[in-house]
Every structure is written in C-alpha cells, then in structure tokens.
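User: Please fill in residues for this 834-position structure.
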C-alpha cells in the first residue's frame, strides 16, 4: 500500500512562517550587532569627552582657589610693608610677620590639596617673596628667604604681568626646573597665575599655583596591550604617554618624538577637527581624540586627549552577545516551527485561541464575555458551556459587590469628610490624590489647589527637599522610615507658616498600584501649652540653681531668705552661714553702714534708691576681701509681704581684662613704651596745655642707625633685646613730664615739655645720641648702633600735631642724608644742623 503524504494549507503556512521568522531573526541579530558596535564607539567617545569635562572642571576649581589666595590679607599687607621700610602702616606688623602668615596659608592650602606641588607669591619684578612647596617625600616645606629665586625670565611671569585684575594665565605643562635645571626625578607641572593689583590699580606682583599635571590626568589610564590614553600639547609633543621615554621630548633634547611622526593620520585630522573616533583597519583598533581648550585668554591653545583600544577589547562583549543571539534565534525558530505544525495538525488552534481570549477577559474583570458553543464539539463544547455559566455567575456577583462597594464608599466618604484629622492620599511618586476637608482647614489649601501637586508643598525644610529621595529609596530598598510609625513632624501652611503635627503613614495597594495614606493632627495648641509648662519649669530651675549670677532674696528687714549656688561661689559662704543673717554682711563700706537706714527709709517713703536700677558696687567675701560687682535689686510682693531679690555678678575678671586691653591698646608690647596711639594722644594734650600756658615743646623724631645690620647678623632676638635697651636708656634720660614712645620698628619719639629754648633741646638731643651710641654689653660687640634725630619746635615750626610730626620727620631724613648719628632742627622747610 502506497502512502502519499500531503501537507495541508495550515502546514504550508506554518513552514513558511517559520522560515520567515528565521530570516527575520538572523537579519535582526546582525543589524543589532552593527548597531551595538556603533553604540560602543559612541560610548567610548562620550567617555573621552567626559575626561575632557572633568579636566576643565578641575581647572576651574583650581582657578577659583587661586583667586581666593590672591585676596587673602597677607598678600596686600606684604606690599604695604615693602613700601614702608618693612612695616605695614595699617596694622604695624613687620614684613617678616606677614610673610610667615602667608606661608601658613599656603601650607594649609597644600595640605588640603594633594594635587598642588608649589604655591608662590612674586613681586612685580618676578622675584619670589614667599614660596611653599611639597618635597618628594610629601612633606610641605616653606622655602627660606635666602633660597628664594627670581623667575623673571619665565614666560608665565611675563604673560601674567600683562593681564588685567581677575584674569588668570594658564601655562604649558613642562618639567619642573630649579635655578634653570630640570629636577630629578621629573615632575611635570602646570602653572596657573593671576596678577595682584593695589587699590590704585598699580601692578604689585602675582600669585602662582604649581599643579601636578599627572594628578590632573589621573583618570586617563593606560594598560600594556590594552586601552591606551595619551596627552599631546598643541605643538604635537607628548606630555603623557604609557612609554615614559616619549614624554617631554622637546625638553629632554629629542625634538623628533611628535604626534606627526608617530601617528601622522591622527595628527592630520586633529589639525581640522576638535573630536574624532573611528576604527583603524590597519592597526585593528579603535582610535579617537578630543581637544581640551584650557586657556580662555588664548583660545587656540589646547591639549589633545588620544584614545587607542584594540578591537578585541572594544567589541569583545558585542561579539559574544552576537554568537549567543544566533544560537538562541535558531533554537527559537525550530521550536516555533514544531509547535505551529503540531497545533495546526490537531486542528485546535482556533478553539483554544477563543477559549484563551474568553479566559483573559474574565481575568480582566469582563464578566459579559461569552463563547459560541456551536463551533466546537465533544469536551471542548462542555468546556465552552462551563465558561459561559461561570461568566454569568461572576457577572451577578460583580453587580452585588459593586452595590456594596458604593454603599461602603459613601459611608467612608462621610466619615473622612467630617473627621477632625486631616487625611491625605498620595501616589507612589508623591502626587496628592485625595485631600479631605480637615486637611484643607489645617493647611489652608482647597482640594483643587493641591490635587496633582507633590505632597512636599505641605512640608518645610528639610522634609521638603528630602521627601522625594525618601520615596525613591523606599521604592528601591523597601526600608521604611515613617510608614507604619506615628511621629511628630512639622508642616507648612499655604501662607508659609509652619506648625507641629502628628503624622501616621500607612501603605496600601489600589488597582495594582501603590499609594500612601497620611493622617495628620494639628498639635499646635498642645505643643504651645506643653512648651510653656516646660519653659516655666526650666526657667525657674535655671534661674535658681544654674545661673552664673548670684541670686539672693531678703526680707523687708534685710534678712537673707535664699542664697543660690552662684552666690555661694561668689561670696565663699555656705547656706548655713548666711541664712537668717543681715545681708549687709556681704557689703563693704560705706554700703555696710548705710544699708539698714536705706531699708527703713524705703519702707516709710517708698523712695527707690537702687531698686530697679543696675549699678556697680563693692562686695565683701567671707575672707574679708572686696571685689567689684554689678547689683540689680527688684521688689516683689508675695502674699502681700514685701521681699527683695538681688542679682549679683562678679565683674573682677572683666575689670582686669578692661585694664589689660587698655594697656595693650596704648603701650608697645616689646618695650613697654607708649605706642603711636597713646603718643598721639599725649602730644595733642601737651600742645593744648602748652598753648594755654604759652610754653614751648620740642618734638624729637628718632630713627636708629645700624639696627638692621644687628637684626640681620645677630638675629631678631638680639634685635628685640637691643630695642628694649634703647627704650630703657631713652626713658632714663628724660623727666617725668616728658614722653618717650616707640612708633614702630626702630623709630622712637620724645616729647620734651616746657624746654625753655632750643639750647636745652640741643643739649638733650646730644645726650640721647651719646646714650644710644654707647656700647651694649648685653648684645655683644656686634651691637653698635647710632641714631638720627629730627627736631621740630612748638609753636615756632608748627602749631598742630600733624604739622609738628611732619616737620620733625623731614628734619630726621635730612640727618639721614648728611651722614646720620647727629640731629637737625627744622626751619623754613629745610633742616639746619646744630
């Protein structure tokens, strides 16, 4: 018997469909592969551009730091001190002090920024004034003054000097040199510098930060045989390369190692393009570059960031995914072919599809769906009838359930609308879905104003800013912060007012989506009442037991009724020693004797002498010692009985501090002589007294000769001792009515009151020169100095303080010009020697 197999229409359709699916899957897999390669290439280019942006962000951050360093007070103070013989005229501090302060600031900046190699401050001639650097070991060192060098020949110095105030010059990356020699090991550095201007717009210097360029490009990694990143300057030389011998070739004597000779194709494209990435078929690698324009003032200057990735690394994951996709495609097509053929051969495709559709509709809640039982027979017909019966029963049950839900919804809505607590429903993204009347009353919004808005509009900071991130964190981790836990938080009303409230949040699921219900209760009144109770209780306890002031209550007759811990500490008495005794035991004379009479007078006349008025009086401790104190007395009536409350504060330390501050403000800390402030005050008073009594005053302006040499050779400590000795000799040589002052540095001044003519002044000036010029055994042989004295007379030369100072100073400079170590009088604008 011969069997002729026939393939029906459904079988042919199944075979054709499987073939088409196979072709489509194969084509789509290859298309996806090439698209993935394009995407991978774009990703690598994006990473390269991100490196560029990171470098520019880092540079901008360093430039902001540079401008901050330029504006620190020591920068301007150093220039002022250099312009005024080493003394800052604003604060009186020396040039060395300001240099040390600036070095401390530079050291702190280096300590906080590991990418900084050096920070220096140069004057307008390129000479270093302050330099702080980082040694190879990482230690931060301040370069000694004698080791500072001139960088006037450096290009970055001359270029920075041409800039306007606030502009910044960015140098090329070069190897660091010390005194013109490249240092070993090599340290590639980038310098950013900004000019420093006076208020009169004169250039005074520049501040420079030397950056480690390797740290600027720290994210550009290179692996042998793998991904390689190089950096090339705008002249084509490598400044970063995985082969160290290629770096800084022009500085090390090999001018041939350039991008043009190593990678001519990439160099040619870089001359006409800012960005590029593409596959290099010869090298089997992905090549690319991007330009970093690092100097806004010179827009043509750039660094070229280059990228080289071998093909097997660039597209390794894509190739593996492609092979897997081919295998999966073949398996899927084979399975689909067999399944389709089997379903068609059994002739149940259509009934099963209809049955599945009806089942899905029922699952989705469509109880009105029905299937046609006349299209099937046998067991399928029974199944169709059962589906129709179930749909009918489900439809009836749904109708009853809907009625019940509507009734319950109305009841719940009535409860929500009339409950005193606010109820707010929000979606998973924080959007408000429901807002009951109590919530409207609490927050001051209508429901129309908030529905659809983010619930954080009802929150003050920090809850306002943190709320969305909290929802995202809960959605991703499931960690609960407030859900299911009632707590007290702060809300914000429509008018911006904040108020305390109790919040309870619960989570629910509606229609397959998550939502949250918050129940809010305004507890403003309760909190206010609680806070008032707490405050009153705390205030009472703090006043009585913990206030730093002594608090004493006494009766109308002066008997001590209470004595708090601060009072016990101030007067050194215990409670048992003072309770029931007269309060005048704590008073020094004359208050001790007058106190009882004052109380009697107040009781009879109600005249208030100290009550309600704070004043300073003298107290007496247990050991009999007296001290200044502030006293404030109040009168209180308790059960119609008069009592007094005294608040006492020991102001001994404040009085001592005031005296110390007064002395610090008017006396030189080194010599103990009056400083410039007190000198000006005494000179003004002397001039007024002399004018009133027609007396003569001589002002001697003294400048030490040779002091700088002593300071430089023997050190600052010897210089300080010398200044103290000079001050002692000057003070010993004048009368009590005269004034000797130190104006700053090695400058002194003497006011000779009622001198009886220039001859006496000349004699006194000569004695001063002899005293100052005498040897100083305490200093040693190198401590020989002299002094130059300029003299102005009142009222002959000037009648006011400023004029007298100016003319004495002019006479002193005449001495300086004519050989030093003698004195001159000022007459008619010139100094005449005596």
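Assistant: Residues filled in for all 834 positions:
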């Amino acid at each position: 018997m011969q069997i002729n197999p026939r393939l029906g229409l459904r079988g042919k359709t199944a075979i054709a469909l499987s073939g088409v699916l196979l072709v489509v899957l194969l084509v789509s897999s290859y298309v996806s592969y090439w698209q993935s390669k394009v995407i991978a290439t774009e990703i690598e280019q994006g990473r390269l551009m991100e490196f560029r942006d990171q470098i520019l962000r880092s540079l901008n951050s360093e430039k902001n730091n540079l401008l901050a360093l330029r504006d620190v007070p020591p920068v301007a103070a150093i220039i002022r001190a250099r312009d005024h013989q080493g003394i800052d005229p604003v604060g009186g501090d020396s040039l060395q002090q300001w240099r040390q302060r600036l070095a401390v600031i530079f050291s702190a900046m280096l300590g906080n920024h590991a990418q900084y190699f050096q920070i220096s401050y140069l004057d307008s001639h390129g000479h270093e004034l302050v330099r702080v650097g980082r040694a190879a070991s990482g230690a931060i060192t301040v370069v000694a003054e004698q080791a500072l060098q001139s960088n006037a020949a450096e290009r970055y110095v001359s270029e920075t000097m041409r800039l306007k105030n606030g502009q910044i010059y960015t140098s090329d990356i070069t190897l660091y040199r010390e005194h013109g020699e490249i240092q070993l090991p090599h340290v590639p550095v980038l310098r950013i510098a900004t000019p420093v201007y006076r208020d009169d717009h004169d250039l005074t210097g520049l501040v420079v930060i030397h950056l480690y360029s390797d740290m600027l490009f720290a994210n550009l990694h290179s692996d042998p045989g793998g991904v390689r990143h190089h950096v090339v300057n705008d002249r084509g030389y490598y400044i970063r390369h995985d082969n160290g011998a290629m770096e800084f070739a022009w500085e090390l004597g090999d001018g041939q190692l350039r991008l043009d000779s190593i990678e001519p194709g990439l160099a040619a494209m870089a001359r006409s393009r800012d960005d590029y990435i593409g596959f290099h078929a010869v090298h089997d690698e992905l090549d690319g570059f991007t330009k970093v324009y690092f100097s806004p003032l010179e827009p043509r200057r750039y660094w070229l960031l280059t990228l080289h990735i071998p093909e097997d690394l660039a597209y390794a994951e894509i190739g593996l995914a492609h092979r897997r996709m081919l295998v999966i495609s073949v398996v899927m097509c084979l399975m689909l072919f067999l399944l389709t053929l089997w379903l068609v051969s059994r002739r149940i495709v259509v009934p099963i599809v209809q049955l599945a559709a009806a089942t899905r509709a029922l699952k989705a809640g469509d109880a009105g769906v029905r299937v046609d039982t006349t299209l099937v027979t046998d067991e399928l017909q029974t199944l169709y009838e059962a589906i129709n019966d179930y749909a009918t029963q489900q439809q009836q049950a749904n109708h009853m359930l809907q009625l019940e839900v509507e009734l319950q919804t109305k009841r719940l809505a009535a409860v929500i609308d009339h409950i005193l607590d606010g109820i707010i429903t929000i979606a998973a993204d924080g959007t408000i879905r429901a807002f009951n009347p109590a919530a409207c009353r609490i927050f001051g919004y209508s429901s129309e104003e908030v529905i659809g808005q983010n619930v954080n509009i009802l929150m003050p900071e920090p809850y306002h800013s943190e709320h969305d991130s909290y929802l995202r964190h809960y959605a991703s981790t499931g960690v609960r912060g407030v859900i299911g836990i009632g707590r007290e938080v702060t809300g914000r009303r429509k008018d911006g007012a904040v108020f305390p409230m109790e919040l309870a949040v619960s989570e629910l699921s509606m229609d397959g989506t998550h939502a949250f219900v918050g129940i809010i209760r305004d507890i403003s009144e309760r909190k206010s009442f609680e806070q008032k109770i707490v405050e009153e209780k705390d205030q009472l306890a703090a006043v009585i037991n913990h206030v730093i002031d002594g608090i004493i209550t006494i009766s109308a007759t002066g008997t001590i009724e209470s004595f708090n811990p601060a009072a016990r500490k101030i007067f050194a008495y215990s409670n048992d020693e003072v309770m029931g005794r007269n309060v005048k035991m704590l008073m020094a004379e004359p208050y001790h004797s007058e106190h009882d009479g004052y109380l009697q007078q107040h009781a009879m006349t109600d005249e208030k002498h100290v009550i309600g008025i704070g004043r300073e009086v003298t107290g007496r401790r247990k050991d009999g010692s007296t001290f200044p104190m502030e006293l404030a007395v109040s009168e209180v009536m308790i059960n119609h009985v008069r009592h007094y409350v005294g608040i006492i504060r020991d102001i001994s330390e404040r009085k001592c501090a005031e005296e110390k501050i007064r002395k610090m403000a008017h006396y030189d800390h080194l010599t103990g002589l009056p400083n410039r402030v007190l000198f000006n005050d005494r000179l003004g008073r002397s001039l007024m007294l002399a004018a009133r009594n027609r007396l003569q005053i001589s002002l001697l302006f003294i400048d030490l000769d040779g002091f700088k040499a002593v300071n430089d050779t023997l050190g600052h400590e010897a210089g300080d001792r010398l200044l103290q000795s000079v001050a002692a000799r000057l003070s010993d040589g004048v009368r009590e009515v005269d004034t000797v002052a130190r104006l700053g540095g090695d400058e002194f001044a003497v006011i000779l009151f009622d001198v009886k003519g220039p001859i006496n002044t000349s004699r006194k000036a000569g004695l001063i020169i002899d005293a100052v010029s005498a040897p100083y055994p305490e200093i040693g042989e190198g401590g020989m100095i002299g002094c130059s004295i300029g003299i102005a007379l009142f009222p002959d030369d000037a009648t006011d303080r400023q004029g007298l100072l100016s003319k004495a100073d002019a006479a002193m400079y005449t001495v300086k010009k004519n050989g030093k170590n003698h004195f001159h009088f000022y007459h008619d604008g010139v100094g005449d020697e005596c």
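For context: The longest helix spans residues 9-70.
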